Prior knowledge:
Blueprint lengths: L4 E2 L3 H18 L21 H6 L29 H22 L5 H9 L3 H5 L11 H4 L7 H22 L1 H22 L7 E2 L2 H17 L9 H18 L6 E2 L1 H20 L3
Parallel strand pairs: 1-2, 1-3
Helix pairs in contact: 1-10, 3-7, 7-8, 7-9, 8-9, 8-11, 9-11, 10-11
Amino acid sequence: xxxxxxxxxxxxxxxxxxxxxxxxxxxxxxxxxxxxxxxxxxxxxxxxxxxxxxxxxxxxxxxxxxxxxxxxxxxxxxxxxxxxxxxxxxxxxxxxxxxxxxxxxxxxxxxxxxxxxxxxxxxxxxxxxxxxxxxxxxxxxxxxxxxxxxxxxxxxxxxxxxxxxxxxxxxxxxxxxxxxxxxxxxxxxxxxxxxxxxxxxxxxxxxxxxxxxxxxxxxxxxxxxxxxxxxxxxxxxxxxxxxxxxxxxxxxxxxxxxxxxxxxxxxxxxxxxxxxxxxxx
Length: 281
C-alpha cells in the first residue's frame, strides 16, 4: 500500500503571514491619553470645532461633468507580470502535471502514478530497504516536478508566483534558481533524516517554495522591515510550529503532508540566502 506524501506551501505561508500581521499590529497599537494623542504624541482623528469653522465654504464654481474629463487610454500591460525564471519554473511544473494527466485520460495506465513511483523521492531507496534504480540518484530533485492533484499544483503555483517573483526581482534568475533547487534538495535530505525507512513517495515543489519564502523573510529582516533582530528567531519558530501542526492535521484533501520537508526547505533557504547576502549578492 503506497501512501503519497505531498508538500503544501500555501497553507503554511498564509497562516504564517496572518499570525505575523496580528503580532506586528499588536506591537504598533497606539495608547491614547485624555488629550487626544497617543503615546508617540500623535493626534487621533478628532476634529475640533475651531478646525471645522476654518474650513472653506463651498465654491460657486460650476461643476465639471464626466464628459469634460479626458478619457484614459487602456493599458497594454498584462494584469500579471512574472519574471522569466518564475515563468520557466511555472511552465515546467504545469507542463509535467498537465502532460501526465492528459496521457492518463486516454489510457488505462495511470502515468502520474508511474512517474511518481519512479521519480518521486522515496527514503527507503537510499537506506537499502527498497530497490535502488539508476534514476534514484536524481529523485532528490525530480520529486519537486510532480503533484498529487489539481489542488496541489494550483496551491504551489500560486506561492511560487508570489515569492519567486519578488525574490527574482531582487537577486536575479540565476540566484533564484539556486535557492529553489538548493532548498528542494535540502528538504529531501531533512525528510530522509527524520524517516529514512519510509516507502512513501514524497512529491511537490513546496520545499523549494519554502526556501524562497524564507529568503524573502531574511531580506525583510536585513532591510529592517521585520523589526528588531531578535524577532527573526520567533519568526522561524512560528513557521516550524505551523509546519508540524499541519503535518499532524493532513492536507485539505486528506493527503499526508511532508512537514519535515517544509522545515528543511525553509531552513535551507535561510542558509543559502544568508551566504548570498554575505557575498554581497
